[in-house]
């Protein structure tokens, strides 16, 4: 199947084999984002769940230096305007129930909002040249766009706080060692590795993936393990168990063939 492609002012999008690859394209500003870019990316993220040919998303940055260097402070100084989309930094960080699985392929610096964008994704694959930081306190800000909220959930409070309170830079190797990153590879292997992970997601039943993601995140916000285990608290659970894909999965297993998912 021929890949579908589109370009915006600040992004490039390719869809192939169920995988959407979204490239933030402001390499002249190290992929730092200004208001127009936030709004444009928000529109892309709005549209992708409605596409029947998209089952997983990879987000990365153009060029080799940066995944995303955060908010474009140079633009802010030039225009006096600081503005995000209603859905947050990059049109994504404010979302808490995005239905599609999303992988951050971090190819270089992920700073401030860029680190927050990676944290907002379901998991992270990193180049060995990648690095991560929330340097906002060094310029009088706080990483309120998800960094100080999501990092403790990702690596635990004590690990997170030494990063948050110092604004220090975390290497790809350290990020892997503390469980922030799932795999670290050479720069020229990054996108192939991210696509390999995404293909494993695409091979699974779409309803099952949607349910698994929703239950995992919702469980964090429930008061105790008993509540998390109560299927009544997870509306998608019964839908998945009663789905046509659930029957197809069992039948394909017994017949030793690849299941043909319909998403129903």
Structural write-up:
The mean pLDDT is 95. The protein contains 11 helices and 11 strands. The chain folds into 2 domains: 4-202, Alpha-Beta Complex (2-enoyl-CoA Hydratase, Chain A, domain 1), CATH 3.90.226.10; 206-255. It has helices spanning 35-47, 73-79, 113-120, 147-155, 157-166, 172-177, 190-202, 206-220, 225-229, 235-241, 244-255; strands spanning 4-7, 11-16, 19-24, 56-61, 66-68, 102-106, 109-111, 123-127, 131-133, 170-171, 183-185. The strands form 2 sheets. Strands 1-2-3-4-6-8-11 form a 7-stranded mixed β-sheet, sandwiched between helices. The chain has a 4-stranded mixed β-sheet with strand order 5-7-9-10.
Give keywords.
single chain, 2 domains, seven-stranded mixed beta sheet, alpha/beta, 2-enoyl-CoA Hydratase, Chain A, domain 1, 264 residues, 17% strand
Number of strands: 11
The gross shape turns out to be globular
Task: Note the beta-strand portion.
Answer: 15-25%
**Structural class computed from helices and strand pairing:** alpha/beta
Give the proportion of residues in helices. 25-40%
Biggest sheet record: 7 strands, mixed
Short précis:
This protein is an alpha/beta fold.
């Amino acid at each position: 199947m021929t890949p579908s492609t589109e370009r915006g002012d600040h992004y490039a999008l390719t869809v192939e084999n169920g995988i959407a690859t979204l490239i933030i394209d402001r390499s002249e500003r190290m992929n730092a984002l200004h208001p127009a870019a936030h709004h444009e990316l928000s529109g892309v993220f709005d549209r992708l769940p409605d596409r029947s040919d998209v089952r997983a998303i990879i987000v990365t940055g153009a060029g080799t230096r940066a995944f995303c260097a955060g908010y474009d402070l140079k633009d802010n100084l030039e225009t006096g305007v600081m503005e995000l989309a209603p859905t947050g930094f990059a049109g994504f960080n404010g979302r808490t129930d995005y239905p599609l699985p999303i992988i951050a392929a971090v190819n270089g610096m992920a700073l401030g909002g860029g680190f927050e964008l990676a944290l907002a994704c379901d998991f992270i694959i990193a180049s060995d040249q990648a690095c991560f930081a929330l340097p906002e306190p060094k310029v009088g800000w706080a990483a309120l766009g998800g960094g100080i909220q999501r990092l403790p959930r990702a690596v635990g409070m004590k690990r997170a706080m030494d990063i948050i309170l110092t604004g220090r830079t975390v290497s790809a190797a350290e990020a892997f060692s503390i469980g922030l990153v799932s795999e670290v590879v050479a720069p020229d292997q990054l996108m192939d590795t991210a696509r390999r992970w995404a293909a494993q997601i695409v091979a699974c039943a779409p309803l099952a993936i949607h349910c698994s993601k929703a239950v995992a995140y919702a469980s964090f916000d429930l008061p105790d393990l008993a509540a998390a285990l109560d299927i009544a608290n997870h509306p998608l659970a019964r839908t998945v168990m009663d789905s046509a894909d659930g029957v197809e999965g069992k039948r394909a297993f017994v017949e030793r063939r690849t299941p043909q998912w319909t998403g129903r």
